[in-house]
Amino acid sequence: MLRLLRKVKKMRSLLSPLSRKTKMFMYLLLLILGTYLINIFILYEMNFVAHKERNMLVKQEYVLVHIDLKGAPPTTKYLTSMLSKLKTLGANGLLMEYEDMFPYKGRIANLSTPHRYDEEPLKKFLTTATKMDIEIIPLVQTFGHMEHVLKLEEYETYREMLMHPDVICPSKNESLDLIREMLRQVITFHESVAPLKHIHIGCDEVYDINFCHRCKARKQDDMDIYLRHVKNVRDIVRSLTPTTTVLIWDDMLRKIRPGMWQFYEHFDNIEPVVWDYKAHITISHLSLRFYHDHFSHTWIATAFKGADGVETVLPDIRKRLSNILSWMYFIQGYKFGGESETHNFKGIVLTGWARYSHFEPLCELLPVSMPSLIMQLLVVKRFNKGIPASSLDEDWSVFFWKHLLEDFYTALECNDDLRIHIDSFNGCKFNGTFPLYNIIRNYTTFVDRMLNKFKDNDFDLYMQYGNIHMRKTLEFLSDSEGIYGSLRYLEVVSKKAMQRYFSANVYKEYIGYKSYRLYKLLHQCAMKAKSVVDLRRWGRGRKIPEFPFFQPPYVTSLTTKDLKKLSTKSVSTYNTRTLGPGIFG
After folding, report:
1. Domain assignment present for 46
2. Distance CA 569, CA 295 (A)
3. Which of the residues 181, 205, 311, 509 is marked catalytic?
4. Which of 5, 353, 541, 545 keeps 20 to 30 A from 175, CA to CA?
């Protein structure tokens, strides 16, 4: 208080030399400025900030399960076996991301991998789903994530950047012709079974825009080029199937600056899907307001798998439950400023990514991710029925024990005496999933444990010193043979279990990738051990190994001046961009 009084006195002393008119003018100016700022705040609150009421219902027209087929499709027989359970749990649609699994024909037949789906079993699956009132929505990437197309030699010139085969150039007529043919074949195939209400055209993570000479010649902003392409693809869909609504992922729209939205008109027949897969989502109310003003409907998206790491084996069910709860708490009773009605998001997509991108390894397999998917479906179903006000904003563990426990274990067909942990599924029977769940967990746990064991082994170091402990060497060779045998056994068991759900190429890739590093490490260590097993004479001294000085590739390009700067500047303050690319390039 004293400090405030001193500041007021100081202000008066500064103003005292001024004339009375000047003082009045300054006071008036401050009053006007204050009024202006208050009005700005009120308008912001009314128009952009979401107002939420403690409604206990979350109403959504669509609950979609995303089936990502990138290079690892489950058999149509297994997908068909899932339909009844998904329907019971509240799902009324599947978002099928075909990528290279769709049976393309004619001039674009090469877009399909050799182990793509055959037309007849795929059509049979679509027909079965349609009879069960489960809508199938195809997802065809048409801008970013087009590696399965642009990696091919015949489409090399379609890339926005030659070295990155993921983004197609939107300024070439050939690009739109290719996209038209892809969409035509997918739409025709689906409409031979049922009218197509929705189609998803991707358009997410378009990392390279406005790089090629054709795009630069347009002299347009990156987002203008992006939105123009989205509209062009929308128009292609409209020409092929006029009543079909187009969905897109929303992440690129977030790059539009708030002041620029006023220059864009309403986007007819396009609906964004807002995705956030974190345990605690961070969604901009301002972005949602702009979507609300410029699009007819907005969707949301969670992740039941494929969001916990590139090489993750099993979904982190705690994070996945936190993710869906965070979304439900966020949209419950959601209101846009200035509107009295609660806003209902059109639908929710429970995404299940098979890979982070076409060139990445497989992450969680669909069958072993069923507990996570069932958990998220139960949460949506529970909120659609209504949640007591006292349960809103509860921690995931409290929510699980109060509202999900019985339904969760019943859906998984688990024994009563095994309902202990959220991720403990011994004794559960659902759809034969859990033998595979336990086998994959045991197999990958063994691999990780052995990798850590050999990584921390100092056997190689002592060999370089020339102090070979022959008993330990022979013991090491014996252990290596045992580990190799155990690994081979676990591989055989895992492959056998996976055959029920996948074709041979999938389990060969999955098992081969998971085992590769351990095989490599075993081989290297065994070769070194065998190279000294015949040693019979040891030297007197202890040989100290000399290690070459390690130089990262970029160090050789540094000047003497740069090196001096490095020696005087701490790592935390030095601009690492001058040294070369970082971890993420």
Report:
1. no
2. 51
3. 205
4. 353
